[in-house]
Amino acid sequence: MATTHALSTDVIVERLRQTRRLTETLTAHLAPEDQMVQSMDDVSPTKWHRAHTTWFFETFVLGPHLNGYRPVHPVYDYLFNSYYEQVGDRHPRNERGLISRPTCDEVAEYRAAVDRSLDDLVDSADDELLATIAPLLELGTHHEQQHQELLLMDIKHVFSCNPLRPVYWFGTAAISGPAPDPLRWVDVSPERIIEVGADGTGFAFDSEGPRHDVLVEPFRLADRLSTEGDWLAFMDDGGYERPELWLSEGWATVQREGWKAPLYWDDTGDGWSVFTLGGTRAVLAATPVVHVSFYEADAYARWAGHRLATEEEWEVAATSMAADDQPNDLGVGSLHPRAAAVANTGRVRQLFGDGWEWTASPYRPYPRFAPVAGAIGEYNGKFMSNQMVLRGGAPVTPAGHTRATYRNFFPPAARWAFSTVRLASDVPGAEGPAARRRAAALIDTPTEVPAATPSPLAAPAAPERAGAESSVDGCTIDVHLDAHDLSAALRADVVAGLRGDPATLPPKYFYDNRGSELFDQITRLEAYYPTRCEREILQREAATIASASGAATLVELGSGTSDKTRLLLDAFTATGRLRRFVPFDVSEGILRWAAAAIGERYPGLAVHGVVGDFDHHLDALPRGGRRMVAFLGGTIGNYEPDARARLLADLSDTLESGDSLLLGTDLVKDPVRLVRAYDDPEGVTAEFNRNVLRVLARELDAEVDLDGWVHEARWDPDQEWIEMHLRAVGPQRLAVASLGLERHFDDGETIRTEVSAKFRRSKVTAELAAAGLELTHWWTDQAEDFALSLSTVSSSLVRFAHSVPRSNPSSSG
User: Fold this and answer.
1) Where are the chain's structural domains?
2) Residue 608 parent element (H or E)
């Protein structure tokens, strides 16, 4: 069961509906064949997860509380009961893959029928009945969220067993990354009695309480998770071949199973690769290692000369020493761990969302724990044997489950969960309380007391037609671009760009699945500061921005996955005024994913997505209520001056009285540093730049030598912008027969693929004023590398930008 708090029934029901819709979103693109496979006993077919979570509501809510309710099918009670012995007989767990009927479509009908009955129950219930069923509805919601994580874990295992290695979601796992960050240690907590466990202020499962006192002595915790690079060192040192590192049962498991590396790792002969929900990629030195068992985690910690934290130590650190990095949970949509953000001295990073962290603690009941009576009491208590506790959360963990008190648990040999390792250590020279009491008792004695000996464990320091509106996953989506529009735009842009002098290609075509993945990697590179700096401003000033705008609607242009926007959404939500979020993006697929994730993370928030481009569809933004339009990431700098003036004027025309514009601009700085940001030593930006040629080859059947071009970044001091070019290596030919287009390039001749203008405050103020906007607030990061400005429609300034001719932007991001 669970402990809960006072939420209105309306909020509980809306969260339930959002969660039910998200389950269908997560499974919609899986084929029926995908949803039937059971690749091992621990794995359940996707179809079974969808049906079981529905059975839960049918069994514990509708059956007991909706008068006259008849189950959708009498046998479903047998097929889809998981482990509730008091409910009745169950289909064997290891035979779930044999359940070919009901079909996936019939399971969808089952879900829809139960959802309708739940609506009928809520609509007809009086206050007394609502008070009775509300905790069950909330528990059922969190139960289904747990199964969202399980179904992603399970489909990953299913796909890993297929020689074709299918991809669940393209672009969700990095293919390259930064160098590993040095591991640092954070000292946590003087010795004292500390309360741990759920405090009753939010939903919690019953095993998270009761809240109780524990003694936590001083300890040290690694400030980041152990990485794939760290694990390679363990393997290279014979970690899987040294019995002295392993617990007895762990060593027996290694021998029996033949473990040589984490689950999903493969030795390619040229190195190690890892299978992810985004496909197979090389092992990356800075990415957290996942899919290791407790036995492996314990052996690795012993090899490193340290240990695993207890779950009480972990909770103390999570509640008092957590860094302010953004949780990498399911709402983010990465579906894979990410390299640690820049070190936050004295704080612990990656506590939430990059992997469930094994602790040294067995899963046991807290003092005074007692399961509730009846079958619902079987939820957690019956599993408090032969399981180890994990804390934190994973990239497939729904938002809200990555909380400091959540106690996940798995058997010590389990590896298919997104489980990882964080090292812990004792504080050098620390003594236990009994030793200190003895020392205190001897203080007044004339006997000489020897100094304490330092501890030997010291830690080292499918597209819709344009204009269509649909309501999917609880979100309204307006589609003003379809596949035909995008294809026509690509063809027109390529003809105009390659026939121009100099030749150009619009870099909005960088951003296919692979390009988006590469750009995500760029934002995490040490040399690329803009994303990091903008996040710093948002973390510090989001509440001020929300207050200053007074907006009830937040619009995000070029929203993508809306990752950074969550900082704004959190701040706007805290004001109590936010009613609607409007993501605007050219990609319908990404927008639908992001909209569903936002809807799940912020129940009750209306999400109205717009699929379109900045040049033609700003007037499609929904009106009504005070709005703040966020145009982040420095994207405005990717427009050349005439196009930029036109875009700002169009934005100004879109704004109504009381609306505001939050604009991100990269600031002028040392040209050497600027060029390095766009020509990183790791070569990720170079690969990103060349990707536009791959798009042409794939989408237009272009004839181009992909190896005949190299990346080049230049600083133009007159324009104060960075230019990215593709430079021909030897004579090159680029031809698109379907467009009647052919162009020859001499050795060293270039195609310009991007400009990225840098700004001064005076320039931002002037350009906003020319568009009829008045700058009211200005924020920068501490180093003054990047700025966010807030502006409103000016009644006194004359707009003269409308006479500037429109031109295509140089980039979209």
Assistant:
1) 2-160, 190-424, 469-486+528-671+759-803, 697-757
2) strand 606-611
At 46-80, the pLDDT tens digits run: 999 999 999 999 999 999 999 999 999 999 999 99
> Residue 31: which region, alpha, beta or left (left: phi > 0; alpha: psi -120 to 50)?
beta
Of 133-147, 589-603, 608-622, 715-729, minimum mean pLDDT range:
589-603
Distance CA 172, CA 333 (A): 7
pLDDT of residue 20: 94
Tokens of 179: 């160098």
- Sheet (strand 423-426) strand order: 185-188, 219-222, 423-426, 307-308
Q: Which residue has the higher pLDDT, 569 or 83?
A: 569
Which residues touch 405 (CB under 8 Å, ≥6 apart)? 196, 197, 198, 199, 204, 208, 209, 315
Predicted TM-score (pTM) of this structure: 0.64
Query: How confident is the model over 3-54, as pLDDT tens digits?
Result: 545 568 888 999 999 999 999 999 998 999 999 999 999 999 999 999 999 9
- Which residues lie across from 213 on neighbouring strands? 195
C-alpha separations of 195 from 214, 216, 236, 249, 666 in Å:
6, 10, 42, 33, 45
Encoded tokens for 88: 């009745």
Distance CA 11, CA 9 (A): 5
Report the percent of the chain where pLDDT is more than 90: 67
Q: Does domain 190-424 have CATH number 3.90.1580.10?
A: yes
C-alpha pair distances (Å), 359 with each of 17, 58, 204, 412, 667: 34, 36, 20, 11, 45
Distances (CA, A) of 662 to 38, 323, 585, 721, 747: 49, 26, 17, 21, 43
**What are the tokens at 130?**
């609502």
How far apart CA 227 and CA 287 sit, in angstroms, is 5
d(CA 102, CA 9): 33
469-486+528-671+759-803 has which fold?
Answer: Rossmann fold (3.40.50)
Cα dihedral 522, 525, 531, 533 in deg (nearest 10): -160
Reduced to 3 states (helix: H, G, I; strand: E, B; else coil), residue 726 is: strand
Rounded to whole angstroms, the Cα distance separating 723 from 745 reads 19
Residues 804 and 770: their CA atoms lie apart, in Å, by: 11
User: What's the CA gap between 436 and 458, in Å, rounded?
Assistant: 19
Query: Which of these CATH numbers, 1.20.120, 1.10.10, 2.40.50, 1.20.1250, describes 2-160?
Result: 1.20.120
598: buried, middle or exposed (CB in 10 Å: 19+, 13-18, 0-12)?
A: buried
Number of other residues whose CB lies within 10 A of the CB of residue 755: 22
Which tokens in the block code for residue 445?
Answer: 């004695």
| Radius of gyration over every alpha carbon of the chain, rounded to an integer in angstroms | 28
86-130 pLDDT per residue, tens: 888 989 999 999 999 999 999 999 999 999 999 999 999 999 999
CA pseudo-torsion sign 515, 520, 524, 529: positive
